Amino acid sequence: MLTVVQVLGMSSEDEMVACFLSGELSSQRFGQNLRSHLAAAGQAEQLLTHPDLSDAGANFARRALLAATRGYGENRDLFENFPPEVTWTRALLSADEAASVRYLHWKEVQVEDVRSGCDDASDLAAANGG
Question: Of the residues 9, 87, 123, 124, which has the maximum number of CB atoms within 10 A of its CB?
Answer without folding.
Answer: 124
